[in-house]
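Students often ask why we bother encoding 3D structure as a string. The short answer is that it lets us treat folding as translation between two languages. Here is a chain of 220 residues written in the first language.
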Amino acid sequence: MKLFKYAYEGGTRSTYYSYNNQARKEYYIARSHARSFQELYDRIYEKGADANFYFYTDKVIKPFGISFGSSMKNAVRILGKPNYKLEFDKNDLHKVLFYKKRVDSYKYLLQLHFLDDEMVYAMDHVYETFPLNKYHLLEMTKLLLFKYTNKTHNELTSSEITLVDSKDNRITILDSLEYNICYSTGNAFTLTRLQQLIEKENDYTIKSKLRSKIAMLNFL
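And here it is in the second language, the structure alphabet:
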């Protein structure tokens, strides 16, 4: 009887944790700023073309102190253990590390995107317990610009900016319902690599559909 009870409770626990793990994965997939090779390509390729103001910096842009091209192991060494590591079912070359941070009343959800174990894109979602207004957005943008340009930029009237370094790495902030700081690599090889992966994925999809049609002919 005790053995039966243990097995039953063990099965219940296993079912609960399986459900909880799936729910966590679905949450982070929803939060991910890129969920496919195509979306990752689009995020990097956009590079703030719609921003109101462009700025240039002599400093190399490093999201959260991590250089583009760094491995996940190096990112963990700098930021510590992530709150979640997202691995996609279909494209195992694309992985995302998530970190939750807090400074005073501000909360940060960081996401670092890796392709072939190299960081190519990152985003910092900043939020508070109350909605951020235009003043907050401008102040945070000015702080970011001061970090990279050593100038106060008091003349700035919009938080929509793009900051570019000598390697064409970029930081982009676009006006939206949320305050998101987007970091994209300037490495041209990354875009070429993504184009190859997208073409390979499309070819596989076309072939899969063709095989399905051929199989259906046997039942028509």
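Translate back mentally: The longest strand covers residues 94-103. Keep this in mind for the problem set.
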